[in-house]
């Protein structure tokens, strides 16, 4: 399946998505196609749903960590505690997870 066919099929499966959502989903699904066999529209729909859930979870985690970092900066910008280090480590892991979505699983290893 080439990129145009993939985009047209996803557009048919997700008619309520705006153009940018369709393009993002097609890009993320295309990264999964070499690892996940898709034989029909039902398989593709399932893969789209899985990718959407993964992206949603990663975005939720990113928002939570961003809020945590904002609180950390506001409350104790001059005091260092070991907990601050763990907050930053979590932020890096979440950020690498989001980068992995957009670069593809084979491009980034952390």
Helix and strand arrangement:
Layout: H1 3-13, H2 19-32, H3 41-75, H4 82-103
Report on the structure:
By secondary structure, this protein is an all-alpha fold. It has one domain. Helix content is 75%, strand content 0%. The chain contains 4 helices and no strands. It has helices at 3-13, 19-32, 41-75, 82-103. α1 packs across α2, α2 (19-32) packs across α3 (41-75) and α3 runs antiparallel to α4. The model has no long low-confidence stretch (mean pLDDT 85).
Number of helices: 4
Report the structural category. mainly alpha
Task: Tell me the overall shape.
Answer: elongated
Number of domains: 1
List the keywords:
110 residues; mainly alpha; 4 helices; elongated
How would you briefly describe this protein structure?
This protein has helices at 3-13, 19-32, 41-75, 82-103. The chain is mainly alpha-helical and 110 residues long. The protein has one domain (3-103).
């Amino acid at each position: 399946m080439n990129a145009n066919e993939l985009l047209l099929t996803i557009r048919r499966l997700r008619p309520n998505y705006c153009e940018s959502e369709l393009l993002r989903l097609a890009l993320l699904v295309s990264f999964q196609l070499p690892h996940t066999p898709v034989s029909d529209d039902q398989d593709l729909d399932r893969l789209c749903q899985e990718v959407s859930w993964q992206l949603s979870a990663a975005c939720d985690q990113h928002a939570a960590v961003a809020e945590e970092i904002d609180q950390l900066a506001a409350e104790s910008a001059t005091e260092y505690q070991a907990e601050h280090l763990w907050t930053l480590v979590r932020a890096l892991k979440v950020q690498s997870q989001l980068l992995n979505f957009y670069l593809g699983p084979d491009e980034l290893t952390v």
